[in-house]
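Predicting holo structure, adenosine monophosphate bound.
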Amino acid sequence: MTFTTLGLSDSLLRALANTGYKTPTPIQMKAIPAILSGGDVMASAQTGTGKTAGFVLPMLQQLSKGTKARPCRVRALILTPTRELAAQVHDSIITYGKHEKLSSTVVFGGVNINPQRQKLNHGVDLLVATPGRLLDLYQQNAIQFDDIELLVLDEADRMLDMGFIRDIRKILKLIPKRRQNLMFSATFSKDIRQLAGTICKKPIEIDVAPRNSTVETVSQNLYWVEKEHKADLLSELLQETHEQVLVFTRTKHGANKLVKRLGKDSISAIAIHGNKSQTQRTKALDEFKRDKVQILVATDIAARGIDIELLTLVVNFDLPHVPEDYVHRIGRTGRAGGSGQAISLVSREEKKQLRAIESLIKLKITPL
Ligand code: AMP
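Done. Tokens:
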């Protein structure tokens, strides 16, 4: 199948030709026609599956047909849990929407609100936002919601995990009832289904990653190691590879401590977590992407949604408390058909977490 057969316009196909993508990914094959048909869509897909293009492309096509946004209004609202994801979705809009005559912007917290207010003045066709900042802008009368035709909740599961449910409910009350709804989530838990029930009308369900299953191309192993020896073991493992590695810690403090420790062993590492400013987070991610540092140490929330390609190894320095986070974490390796490895350093105290993860993924993680 090619992008042409999916019913995308010539101008979008031209933008796609520039990206070098040859064939649509499974989520794109299913989501693009479904969204173009105008129905609500509920899709289960992780980061790395190409889901962003899966909704951005058909949205651009739909919006190109209508009239441009009025001042202080938006026609399509895309909500994301993190600033990084918001920025990435907006980058995709710019890339794929290169030849469309549509306006877009991105708003998120942690940076000055005034430039964002100004950008909304003339109205935008597509707005990518994190929920809190969106509500701040609404309260400051910088934006009105009456022209919204299309709503996207990206990484809905993470939005719930991060406690955005109240903000989302507030936003839902403020926007028009008649609209197209698209919901994307890595996993479809009971809570997500419940939320979907209040948002979507008879959604077309798309499932490209079987629920709570782990990617088949990722080999998953563990080392039993006492807490105080984890850093030594990690350092040894990292010295054996020249590849870039994503390491997960449970806490922000743990991430900082680990970066310092690896530095002592001459391993270049950088941390990304919620206590860092937006500028620091962008810089860290950029340095990792440009291969200036070998190791990115991240907490679950900070790592969510960030687009780093082709990692062959992900290390869980600590196991996550929420088993679903394990699935998200290892989804960062073995993407796009390549093979990957996930190694977990597990201490005696983490046995319970390990069992919970194994029962979620229905797989025993074997020691190396
Ligand atoms: P996402 O799952 O949306 O975060 O996308 C993950 C990565 O896949 C991004 O870097 C995209 O640029 C890339 N991508 C999206 N669609 C395709 C495609 N059809 N072929 C190859 N790469 C793609």
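The domain at 218-367 is CATH 3.40.50.300 (Rossmann fold).
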